[in-house]
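seq:
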Amino acid sequence: AMCEHGGMLNHLHAKIDDLEVAEGQVVAQTAPQCFDISLWQLLSALLVGGRTLLVEQNMILDVRQFVDTIARGRVSVLQVVPSYLEVVLTYLEQHPRELPDLRYVSVTGEALKRELAQRWFAAQPHVKLVNAYGLTETSDDTNHEIMDRSPDGDRVPLGRPVNNVHLYVVDEHLNPVPLGAPGAIAFSGICVGRGYVNDPERTRPAYLSDPHRPGQRLYLSGDFGRWRPDGKLEFLGRRDT
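struct:
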């Protein structure tokens, strides 16, 4: 997918604002450069006078070395997939230690289970957990659910859209569905890229004109969800599964 600089910058500022990245703090880059999430991990701290700690992949393969690296590097903000967070959490449950500099752990790429969030807050009650949701086609994460305690209910919500992102839950005619009803998740605003490079057949059904905001592009994600009464998005599955 071809994304625009404006979408990347909007995402960087969303991470800086919501994860309170500030001067002197350290953000860990855990993702390889070929993944979209590596961009905010690399650049967000540098925009505000912080530091980026480049975590080598061989460190990630050894959870003891990974935890030591995060602790020695005084990492403030960390992002991993939920399955790896479970590996880290199991290690910390077996080898308890303080991580005094760690303030936010963001998870992305997989569904976050409520049980894992409960275990996290039992082990690290002072470290906030962020359930991040987004797609490469929408300049990475578009939603942040920021938690300081275990969530209520069976599902961990995806949270609310970040600044300058418009998100709809729509029917097959692109009309918004009633509150609580399931529908297709669609994005509009600065986050939406231009399309798939040299692939008009894939671009045509996914990238449309936003009927609700003239002049804006709309991206149909293939994901399904619903709005909760508290204004947060809940993920229900994908069209192709």
